Every structure is written in C-alpha cells, then in structure tokens.
Amino acid sequence: MTGPITTELHDDVLVIISNNPPVNALGAAVRQGLEAGIKEGLANDAVKAMVIRCDGRTFFAGADITEFGRPMQEPGLPTVVDMIEMADKPVVAAIHGTALGGGCEVTLGCHYRIAVPSAKIGTPEVKLGLLPGAGGTQRIPRIAGVKVALELTAKGDPMSAKMALGAGLIDRVAGEDSLVADAIAFARDIAAARPLPRAREKTAKADPEAVAAFKKDNAKRFRGFDAPAANIACVEKAADGSSFEEGIAFERAEFMKLMMGVQSAAQRHIFFAERQAAKIDGIDPKIALRPIKKVGVIGAGTMGGGISMNFLSAGIPVTIVEMAQDALDRGTGTIRKNYEASASKGRIKPEQAEAAMGALTATLDFAALADCDLVIEAVYENMDVKKEIFGKLDAICKPGAILASNTSYLDVNAIAAATNRPGDVLGMHFFSPANVMKLLEVVRGEKTSDDVLATVMALAKTIKKVAVVAGVCDGFIGNRMLKPRQIEAMKLLMEGATPEQIDRVHVAFGMPMGPFQMSDLAGVDIGWHRDPTRIESIRDALAAEGRWGQKTQKGFYDYDEKRNPTPSPRVAEIIEDFRAKSNMQKREISDEEIIEKTLYTMVNEGALILEEKMAQRASDIDVVWIYGYGWPIYRGGPMFWADSEGLKKIVAGLEKHGFAVSELLKSKAESNGRFN
Ligand code: 3HC
C-alpha cells in the first residue's frame, strides 16, 4: 500500500497505521487507505482482529477542513465509518493525542476503543459552525447517553481518557508508553467475542428534562450561533425512537445546511486565520529565537499584574517592579487573590497557584531587572515617562534582552529611540484583563530585529495568546478601528439616536456589548482632561458630573447596586442640551444607519490599515477583533463580514453618508474582489 496508510500484520492482528502529519487529518488519501486496510483485514483469513492507530503526535484530529467547500472525493467519511462498524471482525481504535471530530467518529465506528491516559476525545465541530457529520450525533447518544452527547457535541470541549472511560466512550486505558502492544493484546482478548458491539444497534433513551436544562444553562454561550441548536436537534433525534438510518439522514441534512451557511464559513476562516496570524511574512520560520527564561514587568497595576500572571502560569519566573511599596503590595495581593480564586473554583490545583506565586519576585529595585531576558513596561500612557523608563532599562538590562512596551497607542519607534538598542525594542499590547483576554498585538518598530519579533510571536503561543503583528500607527490595529466607531456613535447621539438604541443594534449584531455599555464598563473618565469647567463634548459633561460609568453607578446609563443598567433621563437631558447648543434637529435614526456609520467605517479603517501595511493580512484584522473585542466569531471578523455582505454594498453605504472610502476597498469592490 502506498500513501498515508500502511498495514502491519502481527500474527493474527492486522494493525492499520495512519501517517499524515501534522495531525492525521482524514483527507481523501487517508479515507481511501482506511477502506483498503479494512478490506485487507477482512480478506485475510489469518487476521482475527484489527487495530487502527496513528503515527506522529496525534490520532486523527478530524476531517480535513481544507477539503470543505470543495467536491468531496470518495469514499466519504460516513461511508468509511460504516464500513468499519459493519466489519465482521473486531476493530479496535488505539488512541493517543487528540481523537477529534471525524477522528472521534472513526473510533465510534470501531467495536472497541483503548486510549493512553493523556489522550483527549471530543467533537469540536460546533466550534467550526458544524456538527459531527459522520454519525457522531447518532452514535454518541447510543453509547454514552443524551447528557454526555449534548456536552460533547453542542459545546465541543474534549474530555480526558478517564472521563471517556467513565462515559463508556472508551473501553480500556493503555499504558502511556505501551499503546500499540496494549491495543494488540486487547484485540486478541476480544478476537472471538460475538456479537460485535455496534453503536448503531444500541438505543438511546430520550431525556427531555436534560435537553431543556442544557439549553437553559447554555443560552448565553449559544446566543447568535446556529450550530449548537442543530447539534442538540440531532442528539434528540437519536433518542426519539427513530431508526439509526433516519437519524443519520437527519444528521446529514443538518450538516449540509450548516456547511453551506455563512456562519461555518466564518468560523472555519477564523480557525485558519488564527494559525496564519502566527506567521511573519519575510522572516525565515526557522530563525534562531532568543531564550526567554525570566521576564521583568514594570508596573504592578491591573495591566502589569495581569501580564505577569501569563508568564507565571506558564512556569516562567517574573520580577515585578513598582515605584512605591503600597502599590507593589496591592499588585502582588491582587495576583495572589486571582490565583486563589482560580484554585477554589477548581480551575487550577492549589499547588499550581503556590508554584506561580513562588516564581514571582516583587521589588522596588529597578536593578533587579538586570538578568531578565524580556522586560515589559506597563505604566500609564505618557511618552516622557516611557522614554525615561526605556533609557533606564537600556542602562540596566543585559545585552540581548528584549525591551517591550505595553502601550496601546504611543509611538513605539520614539520609545525605541530612547535606547541605544532599538532593534531589541517592540510593543506587546495586551488587552484587559491581560490574564484572560487571548489577543496580543505585537508591535513591530521600524528597527525591531527579525529574531526579536519572531521570539515574541513564539513566546505568545507559550503563554496561550493569539498574537498578531501590527505596525506603528495610532492605536495599532484594534484601537485604531475602534476610533471611527466611537466618533460615529457620538455623532449619532447628537443627531437623535439614544445610547440604548446604538447598544441594542450592536448587541443584536452579536457584540458582547455596545459602544456605550463598553464606555461605562471601561470608565467614561478614561482620557478625560479632568477639568470640570471645560465641557466640550457629551463625554466631558458626563465626566464632570461624576458619571464615570459602572464604578460610580452612573455613566451613559444609571445602575442599581447589582449593576443593572436603565436608560438615564439625565443623559437624555445632557444630549438634548448639546443638540440645542449646536442648533441640530433631532431626527429618526434607523438601525441600518447605525450599522453603516459605526461598522462600515470600521471596515474602511481596516482597509486603510492594510493599504498602509500596518497589518500583514486582512485575516489578522479579523483575529484582532474576535479575540480582543468579542466580535461574534460566527461573523468571522470585520473584514470577513464585509466580504460576506458584499464590498459593493459597503462602499455604497459609506459613500451615501459622505465618508472618504479607502482606495483598496474601492478597487476590491469594483473588481468583485474580497479581503479574505
Ligand atoms: N484539517 C486540516 N488541517 C488541520 C486540521 C484539520 N482538521 N487540524 C489542524 N490542522 C492544521 C492546522 O491548520 C495547522 O496547519 P499549519 O501548521 O499550516 O498552520 C496544523 O494542522 C497544526 O495545527 P495546530 O497548530 O492547531 O496544532 P496544535 O498541536 O496546536 O493543535 C489540534 C492540534 C488540537 C488537533 C488542533 O489542530 C485542532 O483543534 N484541530 C481541529 C480539530 C477539529 O476541529 N476537528 C474537527 C474537524 S471537522 C470534522 O471532523 C467534520 C466531521 O464531523 C465530518
């Protein structure tokens, strides 16, 4: 046999082996090979049982997503899984790494399953806007019951081998280093057992209460998504007395609906966009990286503390420096509290919390940063202060140390110029809360060395961030695009929209909150000049009255003690007042106009960012908005969304309101092009 599948005969057991790096995706050649392998085992009288296993780092991690949207080559995965299940010799799946999606479904077609303790099993298709479409929604409930099936399919989180054993999804746990031998021994143990256990022949018991509770518990998580409901419907079908064949037909129809829809296309786009973002154009992927064994953080405030936790959690020691003892104590106290809270919620083990705290050194002494491999400055946004700090770092830090600023909009080139080593300087823009938010904008200065950039991009993966390279411009990628949205939202208030209306439109679009809810959460006083007599904008007026947002229980909304918002009559008055002073007439604003003015302008800014080469690619912009600002993943990020709306429509909307349209956006629209 040629191709990714080979076979090995171990006396009476035929082992079918896949070798399709990097993740043994079930592409056409693998499916063909599996079919041929099973046929070989059935045809050879000496073979009493078969084992399917994978070489490399993992068992089949799923269908080959790159094949989606193209004509499917035979045999399809459902056919292969059926063939395995219908074989009249026992087939054992030997699982290591991750048996995901179609990979999990292959194991469900097998009569028996054995896994190493570190293996993970799951059906994450829902995260790609899909459902397990090779019989998974029908076999999981039949093997493990409705509750487990709902968790696995509609939420998509994988389970450990131990949990899978408890749920009946695997039959045995192998030794971590003896999977092949243990699987062959298992195959011999059950070689003669009949009848063969086939998932399709089992029945699942309906559990309407569990379904109702599951829907209720996850309503927030599923809001706006099509795929979870389709997964749930398929699981219900498996338990409603329908035949297996009827269930499969239902699953297929639901799968195809999702596959053809824009949500799955968006979610698949983001899957690849996230991986693409890690790649730096023009830099050799094999470039030697600088070792990062110790990190320094300047500033123990909310940002500095959150940034430190990323490294501590990854086992990298951190030295945190502050100016005053009370600020330092407060900062380290918050870090400790966060770890203790995670431990008490069972998210980490108490010893992990202790280990993380043990790796933290807190000091007032700048000189303690001398042996750090990377120092991240996280003090307040003031260029003079930053320049002074970088001058000091230049004098103290060892040669080769990387010096990073967490600035969210200041000129990284000017900061780098305060040192004699601008090649070692870049921006690392974390998003608040920095220990939670997945996005990291890595800002490449004019003089940043290739190896410095590559080192930080690789480090981002170690600390579980999704990193995107940005150029030096005001606000980089994310905040730069936020700006037109904020400006337009404020203008719309003046023209007659209310904060509630604008926020409602954004939430209905799928954003976690609208621009005014976001202002109230972040603080209306952010960036305020702090002179209550100088009232030049609606924001100034709010700030001057102490309407600083949730923290003062009033901002664009009024809040009760539980932080529930209600529209504020006082804010309406302030807006009215401004409108009168500017001689503006209130008019009806449509939801459509809000979308055009606040979202189309973001797309336009994104196009300018691309024109100016401040982002490497449109998909990077999408990644920034998904992981930094909660853009609904089922809309694929602003640039993908613009593509799916049609760029001509976006340009027409912008022109209708008199906006200057980016040349790139215009030319793409004219040629019926796309960003992605
Ligand atoms: N198809 C095609 N390519 C895949 C793939 C897949 N299912 N899974 C991963 N890859 C590619 C990645 O794009 C990446 O390519 P690159 O190196 O060119 O960027 C490479 O394999 C390595 O992937 P990761 O960087 O993600 O490697 P990790 O080790 O970090 O993670 C993993 C491994 C956990 C398996 C992760 O890749 C993953 O979650 N993969 C997707 C799993 C999934 O969603 N499976 C369901 C597919 S849909 C399906 O099966 C439908 C069926 O029901 C009919």
UniProtKB/TrEMBL annotation:
UniProt pathway: Lipid metabolism; fatty acid beta-oxidation
InterPro entries reported in the protein's UniProt record: 3-OHacyl-CoA_DH_NAD-bd, 3HC_DH_C, 6-PGluconate_DH-like_C_sf, ClpP/crotonase-like_dom_sf, Enoyl-CoA_hyd/isom_CS, Enoyl-CoA_hydra/iso, NAD(P)-bd_dom_sf
Domain of life: Bacteria
Catalytic activity, as annotated: a (3S)-3-hydroxyacyl-CoA + NAD(+) = a 3-oxoacyl-CoA + NADH + H(+)
Broad class of where this protein is predominantly found: other
Ranges for domain 3-hydroxyacyl-CoA dehydrogenase NAD binding: 294-470
Alphabetical list of Gene3D superfamilies matching this protein: 1.10.1040.50, 2-enoyl-CoA Hydratase, Chain A, domain 1 (3.90.226.10), NAD(P)-binding Rossmann-like Domain (3.40.50.720)
Subcellular location: Peroxisome
Alphabetical UniProt keywords: Fatty acid metabolism, Isomerase, Lipid degradation, Lipid metabolism, Lyase, Multifunctional enzyme, NAD, Oxidoreductase, Peroxisome
UniProt domain 3-hydroxyacyl-CoA dehydrogenase C-terminal: residue ranges: 475-559
Family: In the N-terminal section; belongs to the enoyl-CoA hydratase/isomerase family. Belongs to the enoyl-CoA hydratase/isomerase family.
The protein's assembly and partners: Monomer.
Protein name: 3-hydroxyacyl-CoA dehydrogenase
Source organism per UniProt: Sphingomonas psychrolutea
Lineage: Bacteria, Pseudomonadati, Pseudomonadota, Alphaproteobacteria, Sphingomonadales
Gene label: fadJ
